[in-house]
Design a protein that fits this description.
Order of helices and strands of chain A: HHHEHEHEHEHEHHEHEHHHH
Oligomer: homodimer
Number of helices of chain A: 14
Strand content of chain A: 5-15%
Structural class of chain A: alpha/beta
Shape of chain A: globular
CATH superfamily of the largest domain in chain A: P-loop containing nucleotide triphosphate hydrolases
Number of domains of chain A: 2
Largest sheet of chain A: 7 strands, parallel
Mean pLDDT of chain A: 85
Strand order of the largest sheet of chain A: 3-2-4-1-5-6-7
CATH architecture of the largest domain in chain A: 3-Layer(aba) Sandwich
Low-confidence stretches of chain A: none
Distance between the termini of chain A: 30 Å
Helix content of chain A: 40-55%
């Protein structure tokens, strides 16, 4: 705690080392994470958060880096959080993609952080949002959260943005099917990337067809075509994000969205705290002992859960 | 509760209507779910559970239905749980796939149930495993859990099986990349489906290359080629599942796996119970009131979470 005020100052001034360290504290769930986030919280809320999601191979990282370049030209600071095992930002992709990222990676106005989507101790969506808070407090005006859009927690992350963009490619036929069940609900608009490939027009029509069945709302998602590798369509994507932002601000929908996000956030914090409180060494040992009884069919998981909860409540 | 013993009898005898109703109770999380599952539990543990997962469009459902046909020929009862928005079992796919499913769907020795992977109130992986318990208690010797293998909870479901098969196609290049981060950890073996397509050999080599970097273990996953639409490779898949099962039983690894599954199961029950206990109408109202203070930056999500937890503990 002694050195915490110094670090805080540095984080708020956007110092890269301090920001990187702060995100590590958050990601590893270290003891100081909550103290840090609590102190930073009052300095958040100024950044605009953009979620970019879609199936593997749709070109999300290329769009992300092109968009980052666009915002840099407008003089805005950009933070990128990549929660995507296939993202070049996460080291998961081919050399060509990596080279393409080099330009923005060396720009001091851009901060990129990749977060593991598996093997972590859980709470990934909470941690990704907390990392975005650090970047927000550090003064980044635009925060892009890139996730692979098939899993629930990845959808949660992208869905926690102010504007969520779903990226598809002409080959995404099956993903378009899957969309009905997931991506559809969170998309503020769609980008059909690699639009120079065969099947682009049919893919756009398929998406529009599905959109047609969506309940009418005050904002209706559209489909934009892009070829991110050449930069084609990026200005249009940025314009649509601007338009969506203006709509959210004017209609009061941004407030509603952020209110929901706060409630969700509090719920996540409660779950995490209860989980840690509950699994004391004593109850962990009880669990280990009771598993054997369940294996022998002498007890059931339901009996053991009840016993553990009674023990927790009787403290 | 009055009619519950009657239903129990019927479930255990495999009555389709009773089994379907029991799974609905589980899926909707109705009040009687826990009572039901607790009573059924001592009759579970006889079924062998197979997880089938992979990216959308890999042909998981075709493999599932062919495998089901194979087991039926061996005189075994089969239960199928499809947690996959792109699965024909879930109504998410094209007419052709649906037609292909018709044969097993009308076989009284096969019970198929699809579960929504989104829009549910959470706890999907728990509910899918509970549905498998119902089928297990109802006497199905083989239970196949089909999930789309990109999301964490879908991986959890497939990973909760005794044998987990990851299905890929020659076009799964990007998914093979993603695999390193997820599918790889849960696969007992791989099936390269649609092996009559171009690029099949390269895909097999890519998978083998990645497998080569895996830590050596007492069971080393291999890659099988199949063309499920014609039935080619299905006998080999079933033989490899048999071989894996024999290995697990002989080495004691099956017990270890099931012990882990029970511990996981108890943990899930505890989380669910705590969540329900915590979010009483009173604390829900507190949350709603405090969100406004956070919006005004007068409070933070961390302060509110602490306050709610103190309230919970002081009861």
């Amino acid at each position: 705690m002694g050195r915490s005020p110094v670090a805080m100052e540095k984080i708020l001034s956007g110092d890269r080392v301090a920001v990187a360290r702060a995100i590590s504290v958050v990601e590893n769930g270290e003891g100081g994470a909550r103290v840090l986030l609590r102190s930073l919280f009052s300095r958040t809320g100024r950044a605009y958060r953009i979620g970019i999601t879609g199936p593997p191979g749709a070109g999300k990282s290329t769009i992300t880096s092109r968009l980052a370049g666009h915002y840099r030209e407008r003089g805005l600071g950009v933070g990128i959080i990549a929660v995507d095992p296939t993202s070049p930002f996460s080291g998961g992709a081919l050399l060509g993609d990596r080279v393409r990222m080099a330009e923005i990676e060396t720009d001091p106005g851009v901060f990129i952080r990749s977060m593991a989507s598996r093997g972590s101790l859980g709470g990934l969506s909470r941690k990704a949002v907390e990392a975005a808070d650090v970047l927000d407090a550090a003064g980044k005006e635009i925060i892009i959260m890139e996730t692979v859009g098939v899993g629930q927690s990845e959808l949660d992350i992208a869905g926690a943005a102010d504007t969520t963009v779903v990226v598809l490619v002409p080959e995404s036929g099956d993903s378009i099917q899957a969309m009905k069940a997931g991506l559809m609900e969170i998309a503020d608009f769609f980008v059909l990337n690699k639009a120079d490939r065969a099947g682009a027009e049919q893919a756009v029509m398929s998406i529009q067809m599905i959109l047609h069945f969506r309940d009418p709302a005050d904002w209706n998602p559209t489909v934009l075509k892009a070829t991110a590798s050449t930069g084609a369509g990026i200005t249009e994507i940025a314009a649509l994000i601007d338009g969506h932002r203006a709509h959210l601000e004017a209609s009061g929908a941004l407030e509603v969205k952020r209110r929901k996000r706060i409630a969700q956030r509090i719920g996540d914090l409660v779950s995490e705290t209860l989980r840690v409180d509950f699994w004391s060494p004593e109850r962990k040992a009880m669990l280990a002992a009771r598993v054997e009884a369940v294996m022998q069919m002498v007890s059931s998981p339901y009996d053991v859960a009840d016993e553990l909860i009674d023990h927790f409540k009787s403290r």
